Amino acid sequence: MGAHAIDPMPYVVEFDVVLRTGEERVLRARARNDFGPDGERERVFMVVRDVTEDYAVVRQVEEEKKRALELAAEAQKEANTDALTGLASRRAIMASLDRSILEAQRSHADYSIVIFDIDHFKQINDRHGHTVGDRVLSHLSEIVVRQARGADHVGRVGGEEFLWLLPNCDAKAAFDAAERLRWAIEAGTHSAPIPEITISAGYATLAPGEGALTLFARADAALYEAKRNGRNRVADAA
Fold first, then answer.
1. Is the distance from CB of 168 to CB of 109 less than 8 angstroms?
2. C-alpha dihedral over 208, 212, 213, 214, to 10 degrees?
3. Residue 141 has pLDDT above 70, yes or no
4. By Cβ atoms counted within 10 A, which residue in 99, 123, 138, 154 is the most buried?
5. 10 Å Cβ neighbour count for 78?
């Protein structure tokens, strides 16, 4: 209380005490100085209250608030992440598509997307079971992540269908990226402990004034064109 030695107004101080039992308590004192004729403090009047439990309640509230924020962050991450592959969920990748298209239009930059899926994936599930099918999806996702650039986004939009967002990427670069991915997946499953797989892919490059749904639909149509033409190939959008 030395800091309040000449304070003429009432003040509040808090201090820790250790009981004989070793227990620590927090005390809060409402105090007022009493000064003598010479202006020196002669005595201090105070009312002391044990506020240890008050601090315990505050700590509990803070801990509960922190936990609630952590749970909210975990829920947000789960909503934005595909649990099996670790890639973006459909909701998250479609939201990224909307945002990145707006950015490309504002900056007049090239922008392309690739939609691809695993050829004959149903046969893999039917022949080997869904556990093996899940391993195939996980292994494919690892290959995709290695192929993607730092600014790219990749998400799982359906059972075995994926969307790859390619900002600052024109049609030729999009084809080259999709073709490299197709080759990497075909080659990358030869020696893996999973069935060998191939993919079909369709790509589309953003046209002036085009929206996300139209761009997605064009790439999706190109994907099915690749399948109609024999699978294990890349097709461009009309």
1. yes
2. 20
3. yes
4. 154
5. 11
What are the extents of the domains in the chain? 2-80, 90-236
β-strands 234-236, 199-205: how paired?
parallel
Higher per-residue confidence, 8 vs 23: 23
Q: Catalytic: which of 24, 103, 142, 160?
A: 160
Rounded Cα distance between 222 and 63, Å, is: 52
What tens digit of pLDDT does each residue of 189-214 get? 766 678 889 999 999 999 999 999 99
Structural fold of domain 90-236: Alpha-Beta Plaits (3.30.70)
Amino acid sitting at position 63 = E
Buried b (16+ CB within 10 A) or exposed e, 106-121: eeeebbbbbbbbbbeb
Whether residue 70 lies in the annotated active site: no
What is the reported pTM? 0.70
